[in-house]
């Protein structure tokens, strides 16, 4: 409980990043009400750790503990230089309010990292933003196969495919070489009414 939170909080100052990462994991597992305030403060501190794996783990830990982040912190995290931190933040925001998910599309969209792009595609689908379809269509041509696949899956989740989406998916299906992307394209075309 509280003793574990105190020990983990102190471990966040250790010079070994593996110890800091372990501390974040410990803090994320604390469920006792008395330990929660210290765990939250410590995890917020860990969001500024020098090493990206610790920052990303802190983002996921705060989400697991259902702890809110203020908008300024979220904006800072989606602009983090480390893709894993951005991806964890986008996933966290995506899992919450769809309206907030729409805000991150513009902020994190420039990231070239495929993991960030996939999380952004999932956020676009969840956002309800009218720009989501255009954003998904644009990612059908992404160089990474898994991003193209996620875009096709996202397009297939709509109630009805627009003519523009149907045409883009059919075009992608004619030139795509990856079997998993082709399968996602076929499913999207089959499910899109």
Give an overview in words.
By secondary structure, the chain is mostly helical. The chain contains 12 helices and no strands. The chain is elongated and about 60 Å long. The mean pLDDT is 86.
Distance between the termini: 53 Å
Number of helices: 12
Rounded mean pLDDT is: 86
Helix-strand sequence: HHHHHHHHHHHH
Main sheet overview: none
Could you give the count of β-strands? 0
What percent of residues are in strands? under 5%
Rg is: 19 Å
Estimate the global geometry from the Cα principal axes.
elongated
The helix fraction, in percent, is over 70%
Structural class, please?
mainly alpha
Low-confidence parts: none
Question: What is the element layout, followed by pairings?
Answer:
Elements (H helix, E strand, L loop, with lengths): L1 H10 L5 H12 L7 H11 L5 H13 L6 H8 L4 H13 L2 H11 L5 H14 L4 H8 L5 H12 L6 H13 L3 H13 L2
What is this structure, in a nutshell?
The protein is mainly alpha-helical and 193 residues long.
Keywords:
193 residues; mainly alpha; 0% strand; elongated
């Amino acid at each position: 409980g509280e003793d574990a939170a105190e020990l983990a909080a102190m471990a966040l100052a250790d010079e070994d990043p593996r110890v800091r990462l372990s501390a974040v994991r410990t803090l994320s597992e604390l469920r006792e009400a008395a330990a929660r305030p210290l765990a939250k403060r410590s995890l917020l501190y860990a969001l500024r750790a020098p090493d990206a794996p610790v920052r990303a783990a802190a983002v996921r830990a705060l989400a697991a503990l259902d702890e809110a982040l203020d908008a300024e912190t979220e904006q800072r995290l989606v602009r983090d230089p480390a893709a894993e931190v951005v991806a964890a933040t986008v996933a966290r925001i995506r899992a919450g309010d769809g309206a907030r998910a729409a805000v991150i599309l513009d902020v994190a969209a420039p990231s070239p990292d495929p993991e960030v792009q996939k999380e952004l595609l999932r956020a676009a689908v969840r956002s309800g933003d009218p720009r989501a379809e255009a954003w998904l269509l644009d990612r059908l041509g992404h160089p990474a196969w898994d991003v193209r696949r996620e875009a096709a899956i996202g397009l297939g989740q709509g109630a009805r495919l627009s003519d523009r989406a149907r045409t883009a998916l059919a075009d992608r299906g004619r030139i795509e070489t990856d079997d998993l992307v082709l399968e996602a394209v076929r499913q999207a075309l089959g499910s899109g009414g």
